[in-house]
Each structure stands twice: as structure tokens, then as C-alpha cells.
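Quick entry, no commentary yet.
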Amino acid sequence: MADQDNILALSHKMSDQALRVLGFASKNMLNLPQEDENIEEHLVFLGAVGMIDPARDEVKASIKMAREAGIKTIMITGDHKNTAVAIAKNLGIYTNGNTVISGTELNEMTDNELDQAVKSATVFARVSPNDKLRIIQSLKRNDEVVAMTGDGVNDSPALKAADIGVAMGIGGTDVAKDVSDMILLNDSFTTITAAIREGRKVYRNIQKVIQFLLVGNIAEITTLFVATIFNWDAPLLAVHILWVNLATASLPALALGVDPASKNIMKHKPVKTGTLFEKDLIWRVISQGIFVALMTLIAYWIGESFDNPIAGQTMAFCVLALSQMLRAFNQHSNTDPIWVRGSKINVWLIISFIVSAILMGIILFTPNLQTLFHLTSLTSRQWLVVIILSLFSILQVEISKWIKKLIKAKQKENKLQTVSD
């Protein structure tokens, strides 16, 4: 009995060091065993060996990045409970407050009990293929978007049940690859976080383009709507709106489609909505569109009141177009200030701004084109008003970001205060 306790203690010690333990025993036999004969008894213990397949150095950083992005990483393994916990601690999957569930414990749980347990569990050990499927189904019942990675035939039911099944391209079986939605060609966990980052970048860039174009459209519609209500002459003509949409909106919008990712893109919480039109996006589009319209109307009123209607139209046109061009630089991030760059400079955005400015200069300073677009030359005082009103559009967006940042910081402070109390 003492020997058995020593063997178990040795096994647990190695398991706590993230080692997979193999025990060796022998037995002398005079004859070959019969087909149904049980020979796994009365063995003499020879020793135990601990093996480890160390995780790549970059995996720990990837798991940390995923956690900051609001993504919970769960380990589902057939290893011993102690071994699984040791590995999970080393990788940062298991921290204080997390729980570990073994296959035996899981089998004794009802679906309702499992639904509560998965909220804090980050390690499942000694599980069967059916256990993996139950875990995936439980997470989905908790309204989680579940991505499952696996390589074997036993992983296939869980891979198919997950929202996103990810199979290993090198070591994965054909069955696992067939039922999966994605295949990792290099079998590296870091590829998953890289894909998430790229997906977020594409998602945010689409939102940037939508926000950029809709703000301009709302500004144009609001400007004409207000002018109609007050029975004013049209601050903008159809040719002005057409030019703004084609020359000063299209090129920056295309450039925003390839904008580099924000430095903090992996620190944003996941978006569970099924649409690009998040509540914050709708608010930004409406508030910015109305503000640009206000600046455009002020420019028209100043030009029309102190000079003549065509000067007012020219100033309104310039404010609308220049605001559109400048706001493209605000779209890098909805949280970071305009001077905080992404991972690299968007050269295409700079080029689009220069090209749009040149096109604007051509129609504003070429007499024949001035006549065609119903514009007039502006004085230095009028240009000063145009530039100031256009810069206000950038200022409004930056102030909104700053206020939103203060509100989030206050909410975080109140949450920490509540927890400490």
C-alpha cells in the first residue's frame, strides 16, 4: 500500500509539472497468452516517465491577446486533470476564479448545471467525444459564439456543432477537415488570433466607409431640407452635390477600405450583433452629418448675407467638400485621437486627399469651370471662414471621442468601486 501511495505521489508530482505520465510494469509468462486472457494483473512496477510537448513561445502571447480582445480560451483535453491545469496556468488559460471540470464530473451534470459551470470553467480534462459536443452545445445555449479547434475523428461532432469549426491542416484527419469551416494550414494557434485581427480590421474598415459616406449624404440632405423649410435659395446645387459625391467622397472612401488596423483593435470587445449598423455607428453618422450640415448652412448664410448668393453657394460647397476630405483622417479610429496612427501610415488616404484637393482647385480657380459649376472666386476673408468651419468638423469628432473616453473611464471606475465594496 505504501508503494502504491508513492507511485501515485510521483505521478501527481509530474502531472503538476505539466508532464504526461507513462507507467511501466513487467510480468514473466511461461506461455503465450490466450486470446481472452487478462494479462494486465500481478504486474511488477518498473518506473514512470514524464513527457512534455512544450507550447510554442508565441502561443502564450496569442492567448493573452485573445483575452484582451474579449475572447475566452477554453482547453478541452484528454490529459489528466493535474497535467491540464499545469499547462493551462503556464499558458494563461487558467487564472484565479476559473474552474476545472473532469470528464467524470461532467457526466454527472445535467445540462442546466453544465450551462452554469461553463461560465467559469476554462479547463476540461479526461473528456470523451460526446463530452466535447456537450460543452459546445452548452456554450451556444449561453449565447456564446463558439470556435472549436480539433484534428481527430473524435473531434468531428464538436467541430460540426460549433459556430466556426477549425481543423488542423497538417495533422488533422480528413473527417475533421470535411466538417470544419476553416483549415489551419500551419496548425498554429497564433494563426487564429491573426485571423481575428484581420477580420476585425476588415469589419471596421467597412464601417469606416459606410460612416464616411453616410455622414456626407446626411449633411447634404439636411442642408437642403433646412433651406426648404425656411424658404431659402438652395445653398447647394445638384452639380455641387454630384461633384462632392464623385470627387471628394469616392477616393477617400476607397482609401479607407484599405486602412491599417488600429493599434487597439484587439482590445475592443467582440461585437455580437448581426449587422454593421451598431448603435454607436448610427449615433456617429447622425450627429456628424447634422454638424457638417450646420457648418455648411453657416457658410452659406455668411456668404449670402455679407456678399451675394453665389458667394454663399461657393462657400457652402467648399465647406461641405473640405469637411468631407478632412473627416477621412478622423475615421482611422472611433476611439483614438486623429494624431494616433494605426500600425502604419495609410499612403492611399494621403494620395486621395491630394488628388481631391487638386480636383477642387481646378474647378474653383478655372474661370470656365467656375461658370459651369455656378461658382465664384472667394476673397481671403471668405477662405478663412471656409477653413475654420471645415476644421470644426474635425474638432467635433475629436471632442466626441474624448467625451466617450471619459464616460467609459468613469464607468470602469464605478465598476471597480462596486466590486471593491
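second:
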Amino acid sequence: MTHDTTLRYREFKMPDVGEGLTEAEILKWFVQPGDTVTDGQVVCEVETAKAAVELPIPYDGVVHELRFPEGTTVDVGQVIISVDVTPDAAPTEPATAPTASAVEPEADEKPQGRQPVLVGYGVAESSTKRRPRKGAQVPEQPTAAIQSELNGRSAAASPEPVAAPSAASPAAARPLAKPPVRKLAKDLGVDLAAIVATGPDGVITRDDVHAAVTVPESVSSNSEEGKATEPQAPAPVQMGARETRVPVKGVRKATAAAMVGSAFTAPHVTEFITLDVTRTMKLVDELKADPDLAGLRVNPLLLIAKALLVAIKRNPEVNAAWDEVNQEIVQKHYVNLGIAAATPRGLLVPNIKDAHELTLPQLARSLGELVATAREGKTSPAAMQGGTVTITNVGVFGVDTGTPILNPGESAILAVGAIKLQPWVHKGKVKPRQVTTLALSFDHRLVDGELGSKVLADVAAVLENPRRLITWA
């Protein structure tokens, strides 16, 4: 019976979406138990440390069980959904649905290859074994039932009476909480053993952890008294509290770690230049009416990107990377142009592959698609790998300039400030002109002041007189 049930229900595990990621958060389920699914149908959206990715199911059948609710962080290799691939067959046990042990064999499970997710961006098939779970949980079973079942198995295995575990036993003392809640408690420095659980069957919830943070200092500071006495019930979090704690995870967590690593690894130098871009703004208006660019988004960023590509062509040494292991400077003979994009999930820096080879219409199309995909949260991890130089446009927020931090592994980043009408000396007279400020940060290990200054000056020269796009290209 168990063998037939196992064949009937197929399990889909959290796949490795690439780049060595070990976990992902389930953002949204697109199916529910009882729904019919087909091979290749998207069943959920997950967020990794780099991007949001839609996962297609590789089976035809009926959804039997969703193993984790939305908002749960799941390790790669854990089963997230099971599908009844023979829905017309008679159930093996009509009274109850198949349990987790029947659907998901643990000890006798054969090695299974890692499953690719996206076409053209999968992982190589390899014989890998399932990772042991950090905390064994059986979904949709009361805690009391689990404990009685375990006690029953222990009694059957041993002829001697089994004594109840003492209060000092590690198993008995371990508080009940789901893995995401344990991680939250660890991040906030909260001891789960000191929390009074309010969840079903004594399970500690996220609200319990947040409430524990608000316990008065006079209660939590005396650690010796806290060990000797019963833990006091934490005060509930009131609406309108003076603090809100937001767990750092996913894209924001990865971005924070990358920026800290970049700021304290690469010696940053930032140079600034203020320039008249009136001619560039006029060219933008003319290009908007050009039939060759019809339907494409033409804006100052397009010409700034083209100006940076021209400057890199004239100063190719700036397009490089520092190899710390081999103590080498790696010159790149291609430009993967990154564009920093602010999204609801945090800062993303997808890049346009081989941007140096694109014509102006092709560059305009690539920029439009890149920004639209990022705002929709659909940027793939592959789109954010391999960048060589980046542009960040802080001018859209009305900011004049800034000191941008290098994207890890890159040598330079150009910040574009707001373009404003300002008084400017033009042909010996003070006139209102369109003016902006550019800031170029670079890795001083491989880009010295002379090289960095030449690159920034060339970008400014092109934007002041865009005819150089023809003469210098």
C-alpha cells in the first residue's frame, strides 16, 4: 500500500535557481490543493537573495498538498508541493489523506538530480543526496499527536518502561517554533526559551518574538533572576508603537552584505564634475521624433549610457576587475553595463550584456526592457551577474550628486545628478542652461587618479557636445 501511494504522489522540491543559493522565500502560491496542474505550469513565486523567480511544476496531475505557507523561507532541496499524478485511481486509504511519511520517504529515498528551473538557466544534473532537515516537522499534524506517536514507537521498541523525559532534557527543553521564527529570534537576539508561546499547541509565533523585544529592560537585564524564576509573559505589541522592526532578508540582505564588502574591500575614490548638458537635452527631444526610435523610450539616461561607453572605448583600462587571489588586474574586452534600479524588493543592478556592441536604438530597447523587468520584480539572477561598470541615476529623486559605492567585482560606477535650469556662463554671457553634476567612483587599486579623471572628463565632453558621439565612436 505504501509503495503504491508513493508512486501516486510526486513531490516537487525547492530547486537551486543558480549561483549557489541555499534558500528562498515563498512569496505567492498560484495554486491550491485540488487544482489541476500541467507540466510547465507556474505554481509559485519565490524570492532568493538576488531576485524573484517563478517556479514551474514538472508534473501533470492534481495538487495534493502545499507544504509551506506564503512568507516561509525554505531550504533548497525541501519538498514544497506534492501532486497526485493519478487522480482517477481509487485512494489507498479512503478515510484519511496520505501522511507525510507516505508521500515523502526519508531514509529510503534514492539520490535525485537537482532540477533546473528556467529554460537556458538551469543546473547541471548531478547525483546529490537530500540534505538533512534542520528541524523535522510533519505538516498539518497536531504537536500532541506527533508526541504520542513518537512515545508509542519508543514503547514498542523497548520492553522496559520508558521514563518521561526530565525537564532538564534537551529535547524537552527545546521550544517549539518554525525555522523562520527561529531565524528571526536569532537575528533579534531573543532567547526562545524565555518566550511564552501563544500559537496553537504551544508554538512560538513571529508576534511572540517581536513582543519579547519590547520587554522592559529591568526584566531582561537581570539574567540570573531570569534563569531562576518563571519567564514573564511579554507585553503585547501595541499599534502605533514607536518602533517597527523589519527582518532583513532576500534582496535587501544580499545588497547590504555586498555593499559592506565592497566599501571595506575596494579603496573608493570619487571625483565630480558639473557641466552644461543643454545640447544633449535638445538632442533628446530630436531623437524622440526620429522614426528609427519610434516606440522606444528616449531620455537623457540613454545618451549618458552611450557617452560612458564611448569614454570606456577611449580608456579601456578602466573596464577591469581586481583578482585578489592571483593578485592580477583582469582587463575586460567587453562591457556589461549595469543600471541600478530601485524596486519594492530593494536595489537591483541588472546589466546589459555586451552593451558596447549595440547601436543607439538597440541600447534604447535594452534599457527599456531592463528597467521594466526590474520594476515588475522579474529580473533573473543571470541578468545581475557579470557586470563590469554601472550607472546609478540619483537625479530622478531630485538629488544633485552623491558618492556611489562600487558594485562588487566592478571597477567604476557613474552617478548622474538632477538636470536643472541654472545660470551658466555661455559664450561670455550668463544664460539659463541645463546643468547637471556627475560623480565617478572607482577602485583605486586598478584605476589611478589620471585614468579616472580622463574617463569622467570624456563623459562630460560628450554630453556637453554630443556630436562627439560620431567623431569619437
